[in-house]
Amino acid sequence: MDDKKVVPGLPPLLMPEDLAVHYSNLTRISHTPSEFVFDFAAMLPGAQPKILARILMSPIAAKLFLQAMTENLARYENNFGPIEIPSGQPNLANTLFRNIHPPENPDKAPEPPESEI
């Protein structure tokens, strides 16, 4: 009989020898009712960002991923110090959506142009 203790959790992960490794400093996240889509890209000066990998997850897997990232960031900061996000610089959301404004009264239907009345 094998003397190894069985540890509950994830099975060992196999790492393919030919697995491509990419650096990503930009992630676009979108979702549908049934899945989250993570598009990982590299944004370099003077070049258009190119999506290098797309990962789809169920909502529960995405929430568990968020939990794992939160725990791992806390461990990282405990070992290496806090990760400082520069202040005073525009964030990506403000940069991308600064000219998009919600309607003043979303419940009110827009008035048709006078030529259609």
List keywords for this structure.
extended, 3 strands, alpha+beta, 24% helix, 117 residues, 2 helices
Taken from the alpha-carbon principal axes, the silhouette is extended
Number of helices: 2
User: In terms of structural class, how would the helical and strand content be classed?
Assistant: alpha+beta
What percentage of amino acids are in beta strands? 15-25%
Helix content: 10-25%
Order of helices and strands: EEEHH
Instruction: Give the strand line-up of the largest sheet.
Output: 1-2-3
> How many β strands by DSSP?
3
The span between the termini is 87 Å
Determine the mean pLDDT: 82
The radius of gyration over CA amounts to: 22 Å
Taking the sheet with the most strands, its summary is: 3 strands, antiparallel
Question: Any overview of this molecule?
Answer:
The protein has 117 residues and is α+β, with helices and mostly antiparallel strands. The protein has a domain at 24-79. It is 24% helix and 18% strand. The chain contains two helices and three strands; from the N terminus they run E-E-E-H-H. The chain has helices at 59-80, 92-97; strands spanning 26-31, 36-42, 50-57.
